[in-house]
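Researcher: Next entry in the queue.
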Amino acid sequence: MEPSGCTTTKILLMNDHTENVVGVQPWEVTDVARLRRFLCYGSESGVYSTKEHRLGMESALALLAMVQEGKGCEVVEEIKRLTQEGQIVRSNPSLFAMAVCSQNSDVKTKQAAYHALKEVCRLPTHLFTFVQYKKELKEGMRCGIWGRALRKAVAEWYNEQDGMSLAVAVTKCKQRGGWSHQDLLRLSHMKPANEEIALLSKYITKGWKEVQGAYNEKENSEEVARIVSYLEVVEKVKHSSDEAEVIHLIEEHRLDRDQLLTNHLRSKEIWRALLREMPIASVLTALGKMTADKVLEPGGSDLATVCERIQSEAVLKKAKIHPLSVLVASENYKRGLGNRGKVKWEPDSDILKTLESAFYKCFINVEPMGKRFVVAVDISTSLNSTVLGSLVNSVVAAAAMTMVLVRTEAETQVVAYSEGVVGPCTITADMPLAQVTAELIKIPSGCTDCALPVLWASENEKLVDVFIIFTNNEAWFGQANPLETLRMYRHKTGIFSKLIVCGLTSNGLSIADPEDRGMLDICGFDLGAVDIIRNVALDHI
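Model: Structure for this entry, 541 residues:
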C-alpha cells in the first residue's frame, strides 16, 4: 500500500536496466545509479572497501539531490526494493537514507519514509541505528528529533510486531549504539495496541517484578500466558548459577547464547546444550572458542556431532552458507588464536577436515548469474600476504572465488597474467582448492597490467560480459589504459562489458572510472564483495 500522495509511477528508478531508458547510455552513472551504489555499500563512487566508513551528507549527494528534486517517495521505494530483494550488502547506508528522507520538509517523502520503517528496519538493531542517524542529522539544530511523526512510527514498529517474536527480540538485543528499547518506548509515548504488547511494554519499562505483580494473579489469555512464561524463563536464567537448571531451560525453551550471562559460557555443559540449536553460521564462528574451552575434544561425541552438522548438505543448504564463509572460518580456526589474542587453541585435525568437506558442499548454495566471465589472476608476487581485513591468504581467496565461478557459471574463462604475459588456465569444476591455487601461480611475477586480460579477450575474439581481475599489487597499467581498452572492447563487440578489479591487499585503487557504471574497484575481499560482484554483473547497481 502506497502512502497518501505518493505516485506509483517509478520513472527510471524501478527500471533495473537504465541503458533501456531513452537518452541514457548503459555506462552512464545517473543519480539513480549513484543512489543504488550508496544504498548497497555506502559510497556513490565506483570503489567498494571492506573497511566501512562513517556516513555523512557528503557521501550521499545523489540521494540529497533526488530528495530535493521531489523524488523522495521514489527513493524510499528504491530502499524498500533493494532491501526486499536482498541487494543491500550493508544495512547502515539504507538506514541513513531512510533517516534523511524522514527529515525532509516534503510531507509526502516524510510519510513514505515512516510508512516503510517496519519493512526496512526488520531488527531492533536497525531501529536503534535509524534513530541514531536521525539524532546525528539533527545535531546543530534547535529542534529535537522526537516529533509526532517519529513517535507514531516507532510506536507502530512495536505495535505491529507479533507478541512472541517481540519477546524473543527484546530479550536477545536490549540496547545498541546508545539506544535501548526502554528509551524508544519512553520517548515515543507508545500506547500498546493489544494485551501482548502491553505486557512487553511493562516488562521493558518497569521490569520483571512489575510484570509478576500485574499478571501472576490474573486470568490471562493463552498468548499472554505464553509470553509471561517465556519471560520468566529468561529472568530465571539471568539469576541462576545452577548449571543443571540453566541447561534444562536452554533445552526446553531453545534459549540463545545472547540471553545467557558471561559466566554461563565458561561451562562446557552449557555450551553443549547451546550447540543443539545453535545456527550453523554461529557454530562456524565459535569453533575456536569451543576448542579452547575443551567443549570439543579429540575423539569426543560432541566433536563428532558438530562435525556431522558442519558437513551436512541439508544443514548447509538450509542456512545458505557460501563457500567463502567456510573458507574464512577454516583460516580463522587454523590460526589457533582469537581476534584479540586472548583465546588460544590447538586446531583439531578432524575439524579442519570437516571444514574442507563443507567448503566443497557449499557450492550448491551459489545461484548462477548466467553471464560470460573472464577471471584474470595476478597474485604471484607475494604468496604470504593476506587479504585486507582477513586472515585468508590472497592466492587462496582468488582461487576460491575462481572456483565459485567455474563451478556455477557455464561460460567462465580463467587466465593468469603478469607483465606482458597472459595465459589461459585449465581450471575444471572437479579440481580441489590446492590444485586451483597451484594452477593460478605458474606465470612469473611482474607488474600488474590490468589492461592485458581485456586485450587478450579482444585479440582472441572472446565474448565477455564481466571481467574480474584479482591482484595483490597496486594497480598499474602499461601502454594501454584499461579504461580505454574496455571501451574499445565494448565498441568492437557491442557488449556492455563490465570490469571489476579486486585489489586483495590494497587500501585504495584508482582503476575504475567513477563515471562508468560498468566499472568497480574492490579493496580487500569479503562476503560483501561477493554480493557486490553479483549486483554489478546482474545490473542491480
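Model: The first helix runs from residue 31 to 41.
Researcher: Noted, moving on.
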